[in-house]
Amino acid sequence: MASIEELRNERIKKLELLKSKGINPYPAITNRTNLISEILASFDELESKNVSVAGRITALRKHGGSTFFDVFDGSGKIQGFLKQDEIGDEGYKLFDETLDRGDFIEINGEAYNTKSGEKTILIRGWRILTKSLRPIPEDWFGLKDEEEKLRKRYLDILLNKDTREMVEKKSIFWNSVRTFLLDRGFVEVETPVLEITAGGADAKAFSTHHNALDLDVFLRISMGELWQKRLMVAGFEKTFEIGRQFRNEGMDAEHLQDYTQMEFYWAYADYEKGMEFVEELYKFVAEKTFGTLQFKIKDHDVDLEKKWERYDYRETVRKFTGIDVLETSVNEVEEKLQELKIDYDKKGFNLNRAIDNLWKYCRKKLVGPGFVVGVPKEVSPLAKSDEKESRITQRFQPIIAGSELGNGFSELNDPIDQADRFMKQNDMRKAGDEDAQMYDADFIEALEYGMPPTCGFGMSERVFAFLMNKSIRETQIFPLMKPE
């Protein structure tokens, strides 16, 4: 069996043969008249008429003085039929000696049905559009290694219909989110990706240096949370942003460092209205993207159409661990984590991180759909306190198949309370907690001008990954890979 390099060298010889005959193997312009999908959809009307298509040769079948081949243009696939006595000796010989599976070609000819009923183009003329120098695998099974499929995702998409459909569904997913919000009066905005203070989430930021300003900056860890709240101060009532955000943390089936996030902010609304709105949003997006509200996720049967539950954070943890998160200590929680054999990061370990690790153990037991509510203030530095119980917040998180698929709350708009919580977070950072939030003096100043009651919510592409029942890495088109 020939090696890749040997096959590549053979194709380079064919490339040089084309050039020697004055043929450009990489022309800029095509003369196609139709997408293949258009021809297939109107084939009866086009039969016996001249058509022109362009695409990649995906299969070649030679039979003496005739050749059948398949052409794929992204919209569909059609068979081409090249006959030596129709195209001429020279044209047929050039095709035979220079073209391979994987090359891009333009063909024109008559649309007709073969005796077996296959829609075909009888070729009157052809032109090379791109000479490929590497052979594509014979089929999807030629890419068996999962890492190789992700590394050469372009081949996986080309050969695997499911991967191509996943890419298309992801586009529908985010466009349906956008449509839902725009139709309800939200204004799409763009906020800074580079920040002096990385705010809006508990996460470790990537840092870089801004040469022009000679300034160290961070890549954002939220979708402009503190910026969008400034827009509430500025008088906007409904805003949202969809974009990339970055967190310099661990990788697993649910987390990556570079991913798409959406956040919206809605003035004069609270977390109760937020939960109603988000439930409607998730149902709308699921229906538009997948055509159903019933999903199989991590061996769970999830029905988004049924009544969404409310899970009280304190009661849920107490039910599964016996710990009261509002009446506990670091030592008690740490003993329970060790008893349950829960692995946790001991660097910068504190009560907040202890409670969060305990919750992550408990949430896996909740199928959903539903919302976790009653989240302690210690783990919610940007959420408004509950008016009846000041130790918890007006925070909500969608729970589906044992995971949190979003985060929202009645936004804290008391500048004195917010400054105090930032200070406590800053003390945690100094003690080694790299995920604790930074003190943002400019944001506090903006709050002092007054921000109306506001509900904010964010969701990432993890929602899409869950509905696909795949890891988030699998559902990224080009996930970050280590160099070979």
Structure report:
With 484 residues, the protein is of the alpha+beta class. The protein has two domains: 4-136, Nucleic acid-binding proteins (OB fold (Dihydrolipoamide Acetyltransferase, E2P), Beta Barrel), CATH 2.40.50; 158-308 and 368-475, 2-Layer Sandwich (BirA Bifunctional Protein, domain 2), CATH 3.30.930. It is built from 17 helices and 19 strands. The strands form four sheets. Strands 6, 10, 11, 14, 15, 16, 17, 18 and 19 form a nine-stranded mixed sheet that branches. Strands 1-2-3-5-4 form a five-stranded mixed β-barrel. Strands 7-9-8 form a three-stranded antiparallel sheet, with no helix packed on it. Strand 4 and strand 5 form a beta hairpin. Helix 7 crosses helix 8 (161-183), helix 11 packs across helix 13 (351-363) and helix 12 packs parallel to helix 13. The longest helix is centred in the middle third of the chain and has 23 residues, at 161-183. It is elongated and about 90 Å long.
What distinguishing features does this structure have?
single chain, alpha+beta, OB fold (Dihydrolipoamide Acetyltransferase, E2P), BirA Bifunctional Protein, domain 2, 5-stranded mixed β-barrel, elongated
Based on CA atoms alone, the radius of gyration comes out at 29 Å
Largest sheet: 9 strands, mixed
The CATH H-level homologous superfamily of the largest domain: Bira Bifunctional Protein, Domain 2
Find the structural class using helix and strand composition.
alpha+beta
Report the end-to-end length measured between terminal Cα atoms. Answer: 24 Å
Low-confidence stretches: none
Helix content: 25-40%
CATH architecture of the largest domain: 2-Layer Sandwich
Proportion in β-strands: 15-25%
